[in-house]
Amino acid sequence: MNRHKIGIFLALLLLVGFSSCKEQNNTSKLLINEVLVDNESNFQDDYGLHSGWIEIFNRAYSSADLAGCYLKVSSQPGDTASYFIPKGDVLTLLKPRQHALFWADGAPRKGTFHTNFILSKTQDNWIGLYDSGKKLLDQVIVPAGSLQADQSYARVSDGTAEWEVKGGSADKYVTPSTNNQTIESNPKMDKFEQHDPVGIGMAISAMSVVFLGLILLYVCFKYVGKLAIRLRKRNAMQVHNITDKQEAKEKGLGEAPGEVIAAISMALHEHQGADHDVEETILTISRVKRSYSPWSSKIYTLRETPHKK
To answer: Which residues, listed in sequence order, are joined to residue 52 by a DSSP beta bridge?
Structure first.
């Protein structure tokens, strides 16, 4: 019976382990985000040439390094081309929610972001992204015939599972090295502009907020000061055992004398640096001549001349 329970427990542990590994594979940081196969007049590379490109997106909120990863492409069974992303380039470190663009021009000597393969314009393109341990991070198949020149196959939004063709209309345009879905308008701002086209309401609202804040500050400082004076007078009356307020007022209990106020004002004035002397930062060292030095003292010499043999 105990062995049966132990077996069930181990099976559950293996099931949880496999499910966690699968979930980790599906939630990798680095994803293939957009692919353009036929580039005639679209984005140019750093050499001014038009080539197909593959966009990688870091969907995590922490940095991810592409160095050591692999980009693999296949348009026919058995002809998989593999590009090793070299190490030592600081640009391979993707910041959170940022993109990296790799040019599929077959010229890896041009730089880190130029691959050793070219995307096929007539056949399906399978593209896979692997980490340094050759573990599959993400993959996509760009179907043949679905893209025209200067059109890309991209996720609807960065990191989402749904794909679409971009570049066929004005609202779905190709977005290399930037967000796949951009918000070009703000509904709240449009609605506010519709109800207040001149901006009078905005001006009145802003001025009202400013003046209301000033009034609240004035009231707060006024009553806080009065409360502080009242508490100081009450404490002074308790110290001198006086209960009559008129008598306390005649003796000036709790009121700061003019000398104290003047001293505080002078201290604040000096604290601002108005009456401070400007100190010179030049340090002068004068050489002092001394006739005596421990290094030339005779008391540290030999008292007796050594005998020569």
So the answer is: 104
